Write a sequence for this structure.
């Protein structure tokens, strides 16, 4: 039934093993809370969440490529669309949209209106400056780095800070040419 | 059915949480790392148990509460129940999951260590790195069970026994 070629995020999500999102959401919340206790500085927590995300992203990309069957994206625009439509869907079960492209197509925003990470979350005043979902930016950065794209991912809007959506700005810094383990002429 | 996420989200998050605590934050203090991981589990278990018992009458005794953990609570988390429950009728319960999901993807060498880990006693930490990584992962579900029971008003200590892999037994000792 499934055509050969890239699969939609919906198709993949309906086929993967899934678990209760509450477990995921509360576990993430408990980790953030413990990090705040152990690391004390909000800035350091942001940094560590990003690092954790990065470490996850560099591993998750394999599963993404294997399950989605996507072929090489022609440009950064297609890459961003694929992350938003397929990546977010197959892991978190939600879709994101891509907007705010700059003129040369190297910078855009991924907008998330529904985000399972923040169900039941309210930040106390003492957590000002915390990018609660910083793990997500790390995941994107890590995953893209594994497919030769150096990016900078920053939060533009955050619902936990009173905005109407989550908006991640993804900026392509450098496309690293792929390196082969051997030279053609050898 | 409520909202779901892919199982790899949870797997990745747990793996990364354990390695952050063991390899980065408390690289040379495994007992502190273990305590933090257990604390994260405790928090999760406490909150989940609060949510899953909202519309229930209070449990009449310890056994009823333990049965709730084995059936409803375990099903919410793992889509299966605990396979075997034993008790000595003096406050110790052994909950066995014949194929514990969070260990299914880890390679463990069962011969390297007895596999009995207790959160009260981390002195006997295994030398073997793989076994140590596994025991670190188990502090999280131990914490979840302790947190869930604590929310039900039952203070206890929880340890895990993986001497019969892929089965995993959680030993709950209720504090008198």
């Amino acid at each position: 039934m499934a055509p050969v070629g890239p699969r939609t995020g919906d198709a993949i999500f309906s086929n993967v093993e899934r678990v209760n999102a509450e477990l995921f959401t509360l576990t993430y919340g408990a980790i953030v809370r413990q990090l705040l206790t152990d690391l004390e500085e909000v800035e350091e927590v942001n940094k560590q969440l990003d690092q954790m995300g990065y470490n996850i992203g560099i591993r998750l990309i394999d599963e993404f490529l294997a399950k989605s069957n996507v072929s090489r994206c022609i440009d950064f625009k297609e890459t961003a669309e694929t992350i938003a439509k397929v990546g977010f869907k197959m892991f978190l079960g939600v879709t994101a949209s891509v907007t705010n492209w700059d003129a040369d197509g190297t910078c855009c925003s991924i907008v998330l209106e529904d985000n399972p990470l923040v169900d039941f979350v309210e930040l106390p005043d003492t957590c000002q400056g915390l990018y609660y979902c910083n793990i997500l930016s790390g995941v994107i950065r890590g995953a893209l780095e594994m497919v030769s794209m150096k990016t900078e991912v920053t939060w533009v809007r955050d619902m936990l800070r009173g905005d109407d959506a989550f908006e991640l700005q993804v900026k392509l810094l450098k496309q690293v040419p792929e390196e082969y383990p051997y030279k053609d002429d050898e | 059915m409520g909202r779901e996420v892919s199982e790899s989200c949870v797997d990745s998050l747990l793996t990364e949480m354990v390695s952050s605590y063991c390899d980065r934050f408390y690289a040379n203090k495994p007992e502190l790392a273990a305590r933090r991981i257990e604390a994260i589990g405790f928090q999760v278990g406490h909150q989940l148990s609060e949510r899953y018992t909202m519309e229930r009458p209070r449990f009449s005794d310890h056994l009823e509460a333990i049965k709730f953990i084995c059936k409803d609570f375990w099903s919410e988390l793992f889509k299966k129940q605990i396979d075997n429950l034993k008790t000595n009728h003096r406050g110790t319960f052994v909950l066995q999951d014949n194929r514990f999901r969070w260990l299914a993807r880890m390679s463990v060498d069962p011969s390297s260590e007895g596999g009995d880990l207790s959160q009260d006693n981390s002195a006997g930490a295994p030398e073997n790195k793989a076994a140590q990584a596994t025991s670190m992962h188990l502090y999280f579900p131990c914490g979840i069970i302790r947190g869930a029971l604590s929310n039900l008003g039952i203070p206890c200590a929880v340890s895990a026994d993986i001497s019969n892999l892929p089965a995993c037994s959680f030993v709950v000792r209720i504090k008198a």
